[in-house]
Amino acid sequence: MPILRVRTGCNSCRRRKKKCDETKPVCRGCARNGLPCVWPAILAASARKQAERPAATTHAAANRRAQTPTGSSSEKSRTACGGDEGVEPPRQVRSRRTAASSPSDGPAPSSISSTSPAASSISSLSLVPTSNSGAGAVSAGGPADAVIDGGGPTPSVPLGEDFHFDIDNLGGWHLDQEFSNSLPNPTRFAASPSAPDVGTTRPQQSLPTAPPSLFRSLSLFPPRMSGVSFELLGHYISVTSPSMDNGSKKTDNPFSVILIPLAFNSDLILELILTQSAVHRAAKTLNDGDLVASNYYHRSLQVLRQDIIRAGDGEGQEALTLAVGALIMCFIETAKGDMNGTVFDHLLAARSLLSSLLSKSAGVHVSLLDFLVEYYVYTATLSLVSLDARVGPQSLISAELETFAHGLVAKSYVGSLCGCWLRLLLQIPTIFRLAHGILADDGNSPRALTADDTMLFARVYSAIEAWQPDSSVSQDVATAGRIFQSALLIYLYTILDTSLPSANGCYATSRELAVNDAFIHFDQLSPDARINTSLCWPIVIIGTCVADEERRAVLRTRLRTMFATIGLGNIHKTSLLLERIWGMGGINPWSICHVMQENQIWISLA
């Protein structure tokens, strides 16, 4: 009869639910993975030895006391020691988590289907014990080794329940102090409003009664993470994460303090942020042939697509994981500088997943939901410029998401992506719908405005003109908001005339004033300021209306400096797009989609 898995072999293989070759004293599986190889027989013998030794020692001591009364003190001391030291029990688990299991390899898809189900079955993450002796035996596998080998079930915690990990003892992994200090603490995202602060002493949570093999040491990182994976994680924390955050918020960067704890809780999200780091690193050097980035990118597409296809009506952790995964894929395309329009497939998937999450958001911390909605609204609104308003309304934002976003505006939300101008961004879908009703199908001239069109135009214009930056933000953030305000006015004005305006007239004067105001604000903002990471959209909108070579040179220099400083691929592609626009002439914001189509540059300006 064949050897059954996890019923024989060493304790480490049994915990991992792996077949053990039973080679003693160290089996091949433990040797390969750098794990302590402890055998049940050894444990049993040790236990018997500990049980028998006190009795034997007591009996021997009694005989010696009968012969030598003066020896009783030393023998009592020896008896109390209990003989040999037993096997050290596993340390108490201070954190519990669930995560996506690693799917099998297969052909990489080109995009995510928007019609796929909106949830996934996320299995528990295998947490195997590590020791100091085995800490250095990290698998040096390929660059896609970040997804761990599946393991047995672990005690899970409901979504939103407070959880904690020991930053000073990462399950046997040795990290330098600088890297350890940069890791965020996930306890700040506990759903309970009464959750203690990070530094507060917490009572130890009891775990359910289970066989000893179920109690295992916690490894914060998956055991199969390679050296390349750790390098990418460090790059994400130190370079990629700051490049995504525009610095508007005075609190910590949500790309670190929100997404990294979620990555420790999910193989899928960990794989995606490593992918984002890899493609960002490749984009900074304009290396389209980077094999590490390519391997991670195709594997991430495969993993996310398989999880979405497997999903039914996912709830809780499943819905959250998939929604976050689809959103991260949008910014992977941004960091990569995608020119194939793949980001729109991810946006459609994220819209469905995030809308579903909002309807089942009980237990999800409000700050996490706020960030995810900001994340989506920012990307979706700024991507509308790539779509042709003449074809159809093509709204990328559902009613639920738009309502939630207006709630953020009502509480004066300042975000790491939308800064203090979320109110302005929410005018973009309205302008797009207005353009769909006004612009003629032949694209030569707009049709006559109806009374409803005029009222809607006036309402949007009034909202844009009345906008003021929040008083709590920095000068750079306020200036960036003013640049967006000028770009929104140009975007609105140009609905009225798709051809170059005459030299005189109210329309031409108003548009030129908006362009002049924008360049005044550009002069006030350093090209290497962090906030520039959010300015690709207004630069292109304003740039379409600039014919003066001196001003074009200003925008070229700013984009060049932004790419050298931030390194996101879409900044470089924005520069290419703007050059194509200037080369064609007679272009305004509503012709950008046609320039993209003719030059095969389908990008998101988020």
Would you kindly provide a written description of the structure presented here, covering whatever features stand out?
- The chain is mainly α and 606 residues long.
- Among the domains are: 71 residues, CD2-Gal4, CATH 4.10.240; 180 residues, no CATH class; 166 residues, no CATH class.
- It has 23 helices and no strands.
- α13 packs across α14 and α16 runs antiparallel to α17.
Please describe the structure with a list of short key phrases separated by commas or semicolons.
CD2-Gal4, DNA-binding, Zn2-C6_fun-type_DNA-bd_sf, Zn2Cys6_DnaBD, Fun_TF, 606 residues, mainly alpha
Summarize the topology.
Blueprint: H1 11-16, H2 28-33, H3 40-67, H4 72-81, H5 177-182, H6 227-244, H7 254-257, H8 259-264, H9 267-284, H10 291-310, H11 317-336, H12 342-359, H13 366-383, H14 399-410, H15 422-425, H16 427-438, H17 451-466, H18 475-493, H19 506-524, H20 536-543, H21 549-566, H22 569-584, H23 592-599
- Structural classification: mainly alpha
SSE order in H/E notation? HHHHHHHHHHHHHHHHHHHHHHH
> Cα-atom Rg, whole angstroms?
30 Å
Report the major sheet. Answer: none
3D shape: elongated
Helix content: 40-55%
List how many beta strands DSSP finds: 0
Content of β-strand: under 5%
Number of helices, where a helix is a run of at least 4 consecutive DSSP H or I residues: 23
Distance between the termini: 60 Å
Subcellular location: Nucleus
GO molecular function, one term: transcription cis-regulatory region binding
Pfam families: Fungal_trans_2, Zn_clus
Biased composition (Low complexity): 53-68, 99-147
